Amino acid sequence: MALVMKNFKYTAVNEKGKTVKGSAQGTNKTMVERFLEMQNMSVVSVEEHNTLLTRMQNFSVGAAFKPQILSFYLKQLGALLGAGQKLIDCLEMLAAQQKGAAVKRICFILYQEVYNGSKLSKAFELFPEDFPPVVVAMTEAGEATGELSDVLLRTVEYMDKQRKLNGSIKKAIRKPMLYLIGSLVVAVFMTLTVFPQFMALFEGMGDGSAKMPIFTQIFIEFLAFLKSPWGWGTGILIVVLVVLYILFNKISPKFRRTKTLLFLKVPGFGKLIQMNQQIIVSATLAQLMGRGVNASDALEVTQKVTTNPIFQELLAEAHTNVVQGKGFAKAFSDSEYIDPIMKRMIETGEKTSQIPQLLASLDGYFNEVADVKVAQITKTIQPVVMLFVYAIVMCLLMAIMLPQLTLATSV
């Protein structure tokens, strides 16, 4: 869409009777006037005022609607619709209230599309980076059932729950890793700055009366390795491997699949990844099918929602089975990455025609279990990593203190 946001300078009288001047963005003069009226201002004048800087604000990279912004926008939209406001009025109000240029531009496009007769779900589809497939599908289901307000609010709950769980998993992994990386950085810094001074002192005592302690010698040998061609070569090799990993992870589906399989085999973390994916699958399917989306479309959307190649293959197989009339549960029953309780629940749901209800129950169960799993992994991994950290710190202390004692006794 080539809708351009323009800058306008305005003069208006506020509710206290004072004349105020300022600037606002909009697609046209009328939009800005409406925005000022919403702020209880009486418009005196509105004039277009565009510069190179304001034109550059129309360009953006990546998604403008970050997860928190998207949740807040959908929550506001759902609340306004629930209060009895018309959709077109809600979109206009929300567009006028936005502060960021990129977000505001998208909101005005949404308003314009719906104003011209398009459905909100179709307007969302214009911005795939900002509105995930599940949001589009849920909005479409809400439009079909006439429960758009309720559906949007439930979608926000679903998104917030997923973001919270992903945040907990990342925190469980990130915190101990930061401790370990921090201690290694300190060790390298000390090796490069402190230990060469000890080496100079011991070399200055040419009579051999003082011998370098073993802990200090280890760090000095490590320093010699870093300065050698082998050290430089190792550093370059590590950089190359990291770049290759990022590159292959981005362009090679086979590499991503192999990497995912390896992660799923890691004790503790593999089960946590598996459970997280099961939560995404069960929650998304429950939301979609519970709102009247047929099983085939729900599986197709869920396949786009998850980024895990193994579960994408599982959902693709389930989608094929449904299209061919082989049943919903077969692909889940045959997968080794689906817990027995989930297999049994889906099989029962298929037999009783209550898959959405049972998936919703499964989502709640997995969320509770996931919280426990995250806590268990945090309690397990942090002590182990901290042992490595303490060991590094202890070696550093001994490598620093022992040479001083040795030199003191030799003097």
Task: Explain what this protein looks like in three dimensions.
With 411 residues, the chain is mainly alpha-helical. The protein has helices at residues 29-38, 52-56, 67-82, 87-97, 101-115, 120-125, 133-145, 148-193, 195-204, 214-227, 229-251, 253-265, 269-290, 295-305, 309-323, 330-334, 340-352, 355-410, and strands at residues 6-13, 19-26, 42-48. It has a 3-stranded antiparallel β-sheet with strand order 2-1-3. α11 (229-251) packs across α12. The longest helix has 56 residues, at 355-410. It is flat and about 90 Å long. It starts with 5 loop residues before the first strand and ends with a helix. The model has no long low-confidence stretch (mean pLDDT 80).
Approximately what portion of the residues adopt beta-strand conformation?
5-15%
Structural class: mainly alpha
Catalogue the unreliable spans. none
The gyration radius over C-alpha positions equals: 30 Å
Number of domains: 3
Helix content: over 70%
Gap between N and C termini, in Å? Answer: 80 Å
- pLDDT average, as an integer? 80
Order of helices and strands: EEHEHHHHHHHHHHHHHHHHH
Principal-axis shape equals flat
Please describe the biggest sheet, giving its number of strands, its sense, and whether it closes into a barrel.
3 strands, antiparallel
Instruction: Tally the beta strands.
Output: 3
Order the strands across the largest sheet as they lie in space.
2-1-3
What's the helix count? 18
